Amino acid sequence: MTDLNKRSMLKLAALTAAAAAALAGCGKKEEPAPAPAPAPAAAAASAPAPKPEPLKIAFAYVGPVGDGGWTFAHDNARKALEKEMGDKIVTSFVEKVPESADAERVFRDMASQGNKLIFGTTFGYMEPMLKVSADFKDVKFEHATGYKTAENMRTYDSRTYEGAYMAGVIAGSMTKSNTLGVVASIPIPEVLRNINSFTLGAQSVNPKVKTKVVWVNEWFSPPKETEAATALINGGADVLMQNTDSSAVLQTAEKMGKRAFGWDSDMTAYGPKAHLGSAVINWAPYYIKATQDALDGKWATGQSWWGVKEGAIDMVSIAADVPDATKAKIDEVKKGLKDGSFAIWKGPILDNTGKEIVAKDAVADDKFLGGVNFYVKGVEGKVPGDKK
Description:
Keywords: Signal. The protein is α/β, with parallel strands linked by helices. The protein has helices at residues 3-25, 40-46, 70-85, 101-112, 126-133, 160-174, 189-203, 222-234, 248-255, 284-296, 324-339, 366-369; strands at 55-60, 89-94, 117-120, 140-144, 153-158, 179-184, 210-215, 239-242, 259-264, 275-281, 303-306, 313-316, 349-350, 356-358.
C-alpha cells in the first residue's frame, strides 16, 4: 500500500470517528423526571373540610301551635332557635301529643328518625321520656317542668310564678270587688305556686283581696276554661288569671265586661278591652343554650329554672289605664328579681288555715317552692286531694 493510500485510510477513519461523536452529541436530551404527586394527606389538607350534618332536633307539644299561649310560646322559641342557628340544625315538631302512653310512641319515633336532641314540653311527658331515654343513650332528652333526670335526660322550667306575682300586683290595684279568680289546670306544685304567687302579689298592694279557684283538670280545653271563667265572674271575681293554655279566659272576661290577663304569650289581641297585661314566657334563651351545648359537646344532665333574671319571664303590654304607681311597682319587682334584691316568697307567709309556712324574714328556697301543696292565706277552699 502506498503512503497516499495509507493517509487516505487514516483520514477516513478519523472522519468516521468524528461523525460518530457528532451524532452522539446531537442525540435527544434526557427529559427531567416528573414532579412527584402530592401526598394524599397534603391533598386532603388543601381541600375544604366536609360540612357537618345538621343537628336534628324535635319538639313534642301538648297543645296545638295556634293555642295562643303555652304551645304557641314554645313554637315561637323553636323558630327563634332556627333563626339563631341557621343551617347548623334542622327542627321538627309534633303537636297535640297527649300526656299518656302515646307520648312514649312519639318520643320513640323521634329518636328512631335520627333526632339527637328532643324537647318534651309538658309535665306529663316525664315518665314516658324517662323510659325512652334509657333505650336511646346517644340521644339527649330535655323535659319541661319535671323533676326526674337521667344521664341523657335533664329538666328545664321557667319561673312562671314571677309572672303570676306581677299579674297579682296589677290585679290588686285594679279590682273593685276585691275578689280575684283563677282558672287552674292540674293541681301540681307548679300551678299551686302560681295561684299563691298571684295572691301574694295582689296582697302586696291590697291586703283585702281574696282569690277564688276553679279547676278544669286539663291544660287545654277552651270550653271548660270558658265555663270556669264564667263561674268565677258570676261568683264575684272581676279580675281573672289562668294557668291554662288557651285565650278562653281572657275572651270570656271581654264578653262579660271584666278584666283578665294573658298567660304564657301576649294575648292582647284576644280581648283588648279586658286585657290588663300578659305574663309571658320566652323559651328561646334556654333552647339556644341547650342546642349550643349539644353542638359543642358540652351537654350534661341537670336542672335549670329560669326567670326574669335570665330573660325568660316578663310582664308585657300593660293596659293604659293601669295606674302609673302600679307600673312603677312592676318595674321595681323586675329590677329586684334581676339583681336578687327582691324575693317573692319571703316570710312571714301563712297558709289559708293560718299556719305559718315561711317564717318572718326567711326566704323560701327552690326545694320548698318545688313542693308547694297548699293555698296561702287569702285563697279560698282546699287543694284538690287534700284531706285535711
